[in-house]
Structure formats: structure tokens, C-alpha cells
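Hypothesis: this fold can be encoded by more than one sequence.
Test: take the C-alpha cells below, design a sequence, compare later.
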């Protein structure tokens, strides 16, 4: 299956929600779509599924060409869908739910086995847990051998521990089915760990579409930097490939800046170490226990900026304590123009 989306616009009535969307997906690739609430993630899925019409542009799915003038009905698109509310038929048992309107019942047996549902074969949906219901919903979608899978927040109604294991079950099943998938999520960790590629949406437009590693390590905009991971920004002076910061000179990659001047560096909690030292350069504001680690916010003595840093759970600094903050990132940090500043003119 090959999915190609070309300059797609879609929305509700006169309101355009998705603007000029371009993307390609093939093989068994999983694309995770993330973005703030209301940015249009579900609208894209609805348009691909045929629930919402195309306003302009086109969608190509194998030999189907879908445009405003050629709206292919949902049942002809060969799409499998999994929603957050499971949407099982309440009057059919697990086996019958999965095999609903299916001629080839061998697919039912196969997906019941792959998704570990053997002992629930005859169970009615209301007797199943949330995770079991979602496995049935996935089995039902995959048993119909779709050309494309659409998943809309499939884990959002499940508790945290189950989310973590079921995301891998779903990923493995999609890979086994060999079907491309567009998976909408609110959860950045889910997007980055599961996706072959991640698309970050901002107000109906794709800000970046790339591997999780590239989106995280080389965000194409400040919006992406702030959306993925716990970003802080540190003021610095850019000079060629290095920046002078209150914590010393560091190598940088300039994203949206001229070659010198006032900039802000993207720093994440793992870019620093925090230690007790005879030469403190910062003060702890707060720390939050995370289990294996502790997230701390510290204020730099020079300049007074605040950044977040992650330390081992064994380190227990107290608010107000003088601490030593050092940059340990071995990769170049990303430099962005200083927000609201005028000393960093737009790059020509
Ligand atoms: N049926 C509808 N009629 C009119 N406007 C709608 C409709 N459904 C969604 N919208 C609007 O379209 C925009 C995008 O909604 P959409 O559901 O695609 O966002 P989303 O990114 O999936 O959000 P969330 O993360 O909260 O689920 C929002 O401004 C929303 O209010």
C-alpha cells in the first residue's frame, strides 16, 4: 500500500482546519501524528477515512485518487480504524466481533492468537478489560486485511502501565500485518518510541515530518523544540559554530539565526549535570521525584535564567540549595533566534 497526500485541505463548513498537507507513507511504516489539542489530528484521520470530504488537494491510496470531485466512499478505501473508545459490537462475543462480515475466518484465528485473546474467544465485550477490548478492536481491524490503518488515540482510555505494554503489542501487530499506519496521539513518549516517523502539527500545518530522533535532536522550529521533550532556553552569544553561555562555550547548530549575535539555546534536562560543589553557579528552585530520577529546576546565578535538569533519584537537593550546573551534552546544541529580541535580525 502506498499513501500519498498532496496539498490536502479539509475542514468543517467554511472553516479550514487542515492546510496544504503533504506526506507519503508506504510499506509497513508507522507515522505518529502529534500536536496541541485542536490542531487537526483527528480531522486528518477523518478525511483519510472518508468521513469528512476533501476541500482541495488530493489523497492517493494505491490506485484510488480521492479529490473534492471524486469522493471515494469509506467502504471502498480498505481502511482499518481503531478508536479510543474501542467501538465493539456489544451483542457479539470476541470471535464474532473480530469476524464480523468476514469471509475468510482463518484471519480471525490468526489475530486471536497473535493478540493473545485465545482464552477470551467466547467472552462478551462488557466482561473484558480496557486493554483486552482494544486488542479485540485491533484484531477486528487487522482481520479485514486493510490497506491502511488509522488509529485515533488508541491508548488514551487505559492506565499508564497498560499503555506502555499495549503500545508495543499494537506496533508489533501492525508490523506483522505489514500495513502502513497513521496513529494520532497526545503522548510524546508514545510518538517517539513507536513511530518510524513523527509529524508535528501546528494549527493544521505540518511543522516537521521526520524520524523521532531528528525531530527531537534537530527540531526545525522553536515550536517543535518546545513540543517534544522538556525544553528550556538559555541566552547565549553566537559566534560561528559556538555559543558563549553563562556555563561556558558550547558547540551549536544555528536553526533560525544569522551567524552571530544574541540567540537562545535549546537545552533539555539531560544536557546537564547537577552537583554539590565548592564553586556553585546556580540555585535549586524545586525538584520532583520521578521514580528512577528527579527533575529539578535551577536558577543560574549569572543572568538569573531558569533551566530544568534531570538527576539520579539518589541526589536529593533541597530548594534554595547552592548547586553546580555544567553542560555535559556531547552533541551541538540547537540555537534559535532570541524570542522578542531585536538583536538577531531575520536570516536573509
Ligand atoms: N464536527 C466539527 N464541526 C466543526 N468544527 C469541528 C468539528 N470537529 C472538530 N472541529 C474543530 O476542528 C479543529 C480541529 O479539531 P480536531 O478534532 O481535528 O483536533 P485534534 O488535533 O484531533 O484535537 P484533540 O487533540 O483535542 O483531539 C478544532 O478547532 C475543532 O474545534
Amino acid at each position: 500500500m502506498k499513501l500519498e497526500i498532496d496539498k490536502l485541505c479539509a475542514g468543517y463548513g467554511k472553516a479550514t482546519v487542515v492546510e496544504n498537507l503533504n506526506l507519503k507513507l508506504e510499506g509497513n511504516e508507522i507515522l505518529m501524528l502529534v500536536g496541541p489539542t485542536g490542531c487537526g489530528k483527528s480531522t486528518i484521520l477523518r478525511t483519510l477515512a472518508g468521513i469528512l470530504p476533501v476541500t482541495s488537494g488530493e489523497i492517493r491510496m494505491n490506485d484510488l485518487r480521492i479529490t473534492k470531485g471524486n469522493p471515494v466512499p469509506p467502504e471502498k478505501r480498505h481502511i482499518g480504524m481503531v478508536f479510543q473508545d474501542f467501538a465493539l459490537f456489544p451483542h457479539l462475543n470476541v470471535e464474532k466481533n473480530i469476524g464480523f462480515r468476514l469471509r475468510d475466518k482463518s484471519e480471525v484465528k490468526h489475530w486471536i492468537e497473535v493478540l493473545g485473546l485465545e482464552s477470551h474467544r467466547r467472552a462478551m465485550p462488557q466482561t473484558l478489560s480496557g486493554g483486552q477490548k482494544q486488542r479485540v478492536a485491533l484484531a477486528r481491524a487487522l482481520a479485514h486485511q486493510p490497506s491502511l490503518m488509522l488509529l485515533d488515540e488508541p491508548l488514551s482510555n487505559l492506565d499508564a502501565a497498560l499503555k506502555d505494554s499495549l503500545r508495543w503489542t499494537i506496533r508489533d501487530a501492525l508490523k506483522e500485518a505489514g500495513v502502513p499506519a497513521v496513529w494520532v496521539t497526545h503522548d510524546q513518549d508514545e510518538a517517539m518510541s513507536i513511530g518510524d516517523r513523527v509529524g508535528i502539527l501546528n494549527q493544521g500545518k505540518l511543522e516537521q515530518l521526520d524520524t523521532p530522533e531528528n525531530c527531537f535532536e534537530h527540531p526545525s522550529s522553536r515550536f517543535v523544540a518546545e513540543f517534544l521533550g522538556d525544553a528550556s532556553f538559555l541566552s547565549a552569544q553566537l559566534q560561528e559554530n559556538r555559543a558563549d553561555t553563562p556555563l561556558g562555550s558550547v558547540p551549536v547548530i544555528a536553526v533560525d539565526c544569522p551567524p552571530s549575535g544574541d540567540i537562545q539555546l535549546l537545552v533539555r534536562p539531560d544536557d546537564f549535570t547537577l552537583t554539590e560543589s565548592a564553586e556553585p553557579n546556580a540555585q535549586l528552585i524545586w525538584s520532583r521525584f520521578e521514580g528512577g530520577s528527579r527533575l529539578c529546576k535551577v536558577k543560574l546565578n549569572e543572568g538569573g535564567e531558569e533551566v530544568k535538569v534531570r538527576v539520579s533519584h539518589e541526589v536529593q537537593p533541597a530548594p534554595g540549595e547552592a548547586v553546580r550546573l555544567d553542560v555535559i551534552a556531547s552533541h551541538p546544541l540547537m540555537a534559535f533566534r532570541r524570542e522578542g529580541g531585536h538583536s538577531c535580525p531575520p536570516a536573509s
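The first helix runs from residue 41 to 49. Confidence is low (pLDDT under 50) at residues 341-348.
Hypothesis status: open.
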